[in-house]
Amino acid sequence: MNSYEIQKYGGPEGLKVVDRSLPDPGDHEVAVRLKAASLNYRDLIVLRGQYNRRPIQGRVPLSDGAGQVIGVGSAVTKFKLGDRVAGCFFQGWSAGRFKAEMHRTALGGAIDGVLAEEAIFREEGLVHVPEIYSFEEGATLPCAAVTAWQSLIVRGQLAPGEAVLLLGTGGVSIFGLQIAKSVGAKAIITSSSNEKLERARELGADAVINYKTTPEWGQAAANLAGNGVDHVVEVGGAGTFTQSVRACACGGKIGLIGILSGRGAETDIFPIVAKSATVFGIYVGSREMFEGLNRALEQSKIRPVIDKVFSFESAPEAYAYMAAGSHFGKVVIRIGE
Ligand SMILES: NC(=O)c1ccc[n+]([C@@H]2O[C@H](COP(=O)([O-])OP(=O)(O)OC[C@H]3O[C@@H](n4cnc5c(N)ncnc54)[C@H](OP(=O)(O)O)[C@@H]3O)[C@@H](O)[C@H]2O)c1
User: For residue 231, what are the β-bridge partners?
Assistant: First the structure.
């Protein structure tokens, strides 16, 4: 079967298609014919060689994939041939608190990922794809949607009527917008593009801010919410954190997720203290969280926003497209027929 490998760090030219054979699934494993995969910002960092501590040349990239079960180990009870499934970002995080050793089970990073025609997953590292979704839609969920879900619902305990601030219009933020609206929250979203802000309005955003033309977007969001926002889905990192704190209401919550504008910065921590705000780190989520998200998606009928679908052969172009930053929501790669 065909599979991509990261053979050289840098840009998409470091991706190569190779012919690989997979072993039969072990007792607790499931073999899956992949039908679609999706890209996350993390996949760009992985390809640049800036993500993993140890070299991972030869690794199959991408964490997010969906497909059909084509083989099950002798002890597998939850899946059968033909089931439509998606892999969990952390193959080893079923439930409970995150533990350090789970880093070693991250698809497309510490272990081989899903940009391949077939892959083997742990039974505990798979979920059923919601019936209402295509494989392309199912493949958008494992990282971006689970991350937004954990930040807003699991850790954030978002309540109807509260105000949420989303930064930019990438995968995590657009899922955050859809989840916030589905529970009756007020959604405020930023973007560098007025055109994207219009699209966000069509998706239900209550208020929008262009962060390029409004450098003090934190205060602007606080004003739009009335007295500050209750939740920030912080995907920007070092360059946005100060504004995110400014946006936050007293007693508000900031889910620290991303590093789009860098990792390290000097910041005045006192406003966090003075606002009695809660800042917590989010690292995707467990299988249990993914299953909770899927139940909610089936009820709310949220449709993942797919910006563009690329063929398996043009996967390197999908990376270049994502890196250019013109996408809105998710970029998907179709695998096979
Ligand atoms: N901790 C975790 O578990 C976790 C999980 C998923 C993602 N992440 C992180 O979260 C971040 C977003 O990931 P993603 O996959 O959603 O990315 P993405 O789809 O590539 O989103 C990129 C978008 O973010 C916006 N953006 C870029 N720089 C910005 C800035 N300085 N301020 C505000 N918005 C900015 C832009 O939106 P506009 O074009 O609208 O301006 C850009 O198009 C990344 O840093 C990623 O590593 C972390």
Answer: 164, 253
Q: What is the extent of the structural domain holding 26?
A: 2-140+304-334
Distances (CA, A) of 132 to 4, 78, 87, 95, 150: 29, 20, 17, 25, 22
Same domain, 157 and 251: yes
How does strand 229-234 pair with strand 163-166? parallel
pTM: 0.98
**How confident is the model at residue 265, as a pLDDT?**
83
Pocket test for ligand 1, best of 40, 51, 190 (most atoms within 8 A of CB): 40
How many domains are there within the chain? 2
Q: Per the structure block, which two tokens stand in for 81? A: 């041939």
Instruction: Classify residue 287: in a domain, yes or no.
Output: no
156 and 243: one domain?
yes
Q: Phi and psi dihedrals of 319, rounded to 5?
A: -60, -45
List, in sequence order, the alpha helices (H) in the chain. Answer: 41-48, 135-138, 146-149, 171-182, 194-202, 217-225, 241-247, 270-274, 287-300, 315-324
| Residue to probe by mutation, ligand 1, list 195, 198, 235, most atoms within 8 Å of CB | 235
> In terms of domains, do 234 and 136 share one?
no
Domain co-membership, 130 together with 155? no
Q: Quote the mean pLDDT of the chain.
A: 97
Q: Is residue 319 part of a domain?
A: yes
253 forms bridges with which residues in the sheet? 231, 278
How many angstroms separate the alpha carbon of residue 36 from the centre of ligand 1? 21
User: Position 209: which residue type?
Assistant: I
User: What are the pLDDT digits (tens) for 200-209?
Assistant: 999 999 999 9
**Cα(196) to centroid of ligand 1, in Å?**
14
